[in-house]
Every structure is written in structure tokens, then in C-alpha cells.
Amino acid sequence: MSETSKIDFWFDPICPWCWMTSRWIKDVEKVRDVEVQWHPFSLAVLNEGRDLPESYQKHMDEAWGPVRVATAVSERYGQSEVDALYTALGEEIHHRKNNDNKYSDAIEKALAATGLPAELAEFATSGESDERMRTSTKEGLEAAGGDDIGVPLMSINGVTFFGPVMSPAPTGEEAGKVFDGALALASYPGFFELKRPRNVGPIFNTEQ
Q1: How far is it, in rounded angstroms, from Cα 16 to Cα 18?
Q2: 206 pLDDT band (50/70/90 cuts)?
Q3: Are 68 and 123 in contact (CB under 8 A)?
Q4: How does residue 1 score in pLDDT terms, banded at 50, 70 and 90?
């Protein structure tokens, strides 16, 4: 009998690459013995104080709301609810391109879709969950051993790495086979990096 693989997955709801990797993990859950813990990660926090291009700075200024709400849900309702909220936010933001007004409508609709209280949307602008959000982001960075790493960021049985970045995300048994490879790499203490040029943008599996 195979042992359960423990996955820690750090996510920012606004990142399309993170979204695709997370959908891969959701398919892995169906075909492999894994246990996933979802952790909010703020790209806005990561990029605080950096000299960014104007367009990306605007993107970061608008990025606080979804991850603040995800953090509040994680703190108050636990893993199953933050998992469901991330799925609902991702469908709104990435599939329906619902990203106006600092994602306020996407947050509202995602909360409604998951049956979570509508008043949780207030966390998007209150900053009340920021301390925990910053801590979760820091925990991800420390696990990865650096402060210049974004998402997707994940640990497999305690071995943390950026990625994998993929487009589109594999599904079904193919998702399991890709995970088998990631698990094998994570199990080898001497493995550090694997990378190749990326020549496509985000390709979403909208049927998921």
C-alpha cells in the first residue's frame, strides 16, 4: 500500500499560472493518494517596496482583495472552505475574466457560489486578515529558501519548490503520471532545479 503524499500548496487567486497548477493538483487528488493543504500567498506582499513597471504595480495594487478574503476564510472556516473558495474565485477571475473594481464582483460571486457569508467580502478592504496573510506568505518563502519566489509554490512531503508551471494543466490519469514524476524528483535529495523555455500563455481547461 502506498503512503499518502502530503502536499502544501501556496496560492494567490489572481495568478493564472498558479491557477492551472492548482487544477492539476485537484485532478491529482482524484487519481493518487494525496492530502492537500491550501495556504494563501500574497503577490502584493511579495512585491511591496519593489520598483515595478507601472502596469504591474497597478496589478499589485488591485491584488489585495481576493487573497485577503481567502485568508479570512482559511482562518475561520478551514481547509475545505478555502479550497472551495479558491476554486470559485479562480473560475470568476480566470475563466470569466471577472477582474474589475479590484475583483469585488468576483469575490461577491465566489462567496455566494460557496455558500459562505457575504460579509466576508469586507475583509478585501479592511486589512484585518493581513497579519495572517503575511505570515502565510513568509512561511511559503521560508519553506522554499528564498524571498524572490512567487506562485505556484508547493511542497511534496516537505520538499518545497516553485512550480511546476504548465499550460494547459494535465487531467485524469495524465495528471497522476505528471505527479509521479514530481514526487520522484522531490524524493531525491540532490534535485534542485529543472527548467525549459515557455512558449505558450495560460491555456485553461474550462470544463474543470
Answers
A1: 5
A2: low
A3: yes
A4: very low
Would you say residue 207 has pLDDT above 70? no
Which three cell numbers, joined as nine digits, stand for 22?
492548482
- CA distances (Å), origin 120, targets 10, 68, 124, 128, 184: 21, 10, 8, 11, 40
Side by side, the strands of the sheet bearing 34-40 are 34-40, 5-11, 153-156, 159-162
Contact 140, 41 (CB under 8 A): yes
Query: Which grid coordinates belong to 127?
Result: 486589512
How far, in Å, are 31, 32, 84, 167, 204 from residue 36 at the CA level?
13, 11, 13, 21, 21
Q: Helix, strand, or coil here: 144?
A: helix
> How does pLDDT run across 67-113, given as a tens digit for each residue?
999 999 999 999 999 999 999 999 999 999 999 889 999 999 999 99
Which cell numbers hold the place of 114? 460557496
Kindly state the cell numbers that stand for 120.
466576508
DSSP secondary structure string for all residues of 49-67: T----HHHHHHHHT-HHHH
Cα–Cα dist 112/67, whole Å: 17
What are the tens digits of pLDDT across the range 137-147? 999 999 998 87
